[in-house]
């Protein structure tokens, strides 16, 4: 930790000026004292010098408290959900972040509803249309699939193997600007019985629409073979 960083109370230029000022004052008072000034009283000299020492130490102490957030001094958070990184005190930031995340959550959940509607109606092309044209789909236990055409083929195969419906439960959404991540669980039903698992998706906003850029899932309770 740099007690004199430009983000603290003093930048590098002020540091040099402050240190040299202390040394100069100490030298002046020392010369005056040795020359018989200040009535030759050493106490006056040390009181004045001590005052500047206290000023220096208190500044350093406050910087340390800010760094380690002691007694609430300098307690800050970073808002990564805003369109640009920013800092703010805790209460206003929490309020702003909650609002941003809520809106983002609803946007992603709405897009998942579109995916489920397409998939549950047997529309593999419509389900694949929710993906970025350059997106990746990484199913459990098989090689990744790139692009909408490959993703559409994967869903067609799923449907031909008896998967009739899917339910997607969005559990967490976060992000900002043109990127977001989503974590949740899924449940499939079909001729082989139910299957359930967890998924993680990266969404990218393209031309004002959220598209799935990366998608991966993990099977927790597989269907019967």
TrEMBL record:
Tree of life domain: Eukaryota
Keywords noted in UniProt: Membrane, Transmembrane, Transmembrane helix
The keyword Cell inner membrane belongs to this UniProt entry's keyword annotation: no
Limits of the DUF4440 domain: 108-212
Residues passing through the membrane, by range: 16-36, 42-62
Pfam families with a match to the protein in the record: DUF4440 (PF14534)
Name of the protein described by the UniProt record: DUF4440 domain-containing protein
């Amino acid at each position: 930790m740099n007690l004199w960083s430009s983000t603290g109370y003093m930048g590098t230029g002020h540091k040099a000026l402050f240190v040299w000022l202390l040394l100069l004052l100490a030298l002046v008072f020392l010369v005056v004292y040795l020359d018989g000034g200040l009535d030759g009283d050493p106490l006056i000299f040390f009181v004045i010098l001590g005052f500047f020492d206290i000023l220096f130490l208190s500044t350093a102490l406050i910087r340390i408290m800010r760094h380690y957030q002691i007694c609430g001094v300098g307690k800050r958070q970073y808002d990564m959900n805003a369109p640009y990184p920013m800092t703010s005190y805790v209460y206003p930031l929490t309020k702003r972040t909650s609002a941003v995340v809520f809106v983002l959550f609803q946007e992603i959940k709405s897009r998942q509803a579109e995916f489920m509607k397409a998939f549950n109606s047997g529309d593999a092309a419509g389900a694949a249309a929710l993906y970025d044209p350059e997106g990746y789909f990484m199913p459990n236990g098989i090689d990744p699939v790139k692009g909408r055409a490959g993703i559409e083929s994967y869903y067609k195969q799923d449907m031909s193997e008896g998967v009739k419906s899917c339910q997607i439960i969005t559990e967490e959404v976060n992000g900002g600007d043109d990127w977001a991540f989503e974590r949740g669980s899924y449940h499939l039903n079909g001729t082989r019985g139910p299957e359930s698992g967890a998924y993680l998706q990266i969404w990218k906003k393209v031309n004002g629409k959220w598209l799935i850029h990366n998608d991966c899932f993990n099977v927790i309770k597989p269907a019967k073979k």
